[in-house]
Amino acid sequence: MLYCSCGFSCGVKAALDRHLAKFAGTESEAEHGHSLPLPALPPRGVKSAPNLARSLDIDEDGAETDELQPTKPAKQPVPTPPRTCRESSGRQAMVRLLLVRHAQSANKCRLPGQVAEADPGLTDYGLQQANALGHRLAKDFRSTKVSRVIFVSSPMRRCLLTMQPAVSLLQLTPENVLCHGGSYEFGCAGKAFVGSTAEEISTEYPEFKPVGFAPDNAWDYQGNTEKETEQECRARGVRLVEWLFATAAASGEFPHTIVLATHQTINDLICSILVDGSAERWRYGEIRYRLQTAGITEVLADPGKSRLGVQNDGTHLFALKNK
């Protein structure tokens, strides 16, 4: 490799000769000989010259030349901050919703002629289902940041009891364990029966924080009939879905998982709203999104394009069914 004191280098003597010939007879040659002076630093306060990079060219006669060319400094990528539920392309962010049906109701084992309870608990088998579900959810979420998981229950006892084992195993804080007063089963509230109060829930189930209750602290029934109608239930379902999105958005970084312990009918209604895009097709008793007791259905909920994931999963119940 041939060098000039100016920093020029090349691998062909003819190219170096042409380089030196440019300065033949000049003051630079008289002062420095057959070379160029090293470039001086710019005066203080003067902006530096652009960075220089070498480029290899081929002359018309086939000789290689090595010239210093100015280059623009490489652009540094601008770091993109992580999006949150509050800012997801201008829309509400996706929510991973796990719909869990309550375990077996105590009304399933009532004696002949015995009147069904308005708000029953669970059978012994139902308690076993709840325990199996709790261990399943604890296993599923053991590697997940617990602060990004919210458990929500219907105010009905069979749902609260179904969620208790999972809440205990995961050691969730009250801010992440909620009881929503508007997620009860269809027709189970009205002017004739207003349900349990928020204070009663807090006393009997202290791990659950009551939210979404009516101004009088009863279940969130907003109609005027003795028993809830289908149209009133559709409106309640829409309010519940809006609350789910708002709750996820208020919780910070997404994606967020919400586990909702609910009922067959409300599961069907929520899936109709999210997957079908409307509550209008929903009819009581015409189940299209079936969910077994203590089963799980996953909905990847995004306003306008929600889709189903795992449906009616009951693999955690196989050991109980085979007894």
TrEMBL record:
Region span, Disordered: 27-49, 63-89
A single Gene Ontology CC term: cytoplasm
GO terms, molecular function: phosphatase activity
InterPro entries named among the record's database cross-references: His_Pase_superF_clade-1, His_PPase_superfam, PGM_Phosphatase
Source domain of life: Eukaryota
Pfam families listed in its UniProt record: His_Phos_1
Protein name: Phosphoglycerate mutase
Species annotation: Effrenium voratum
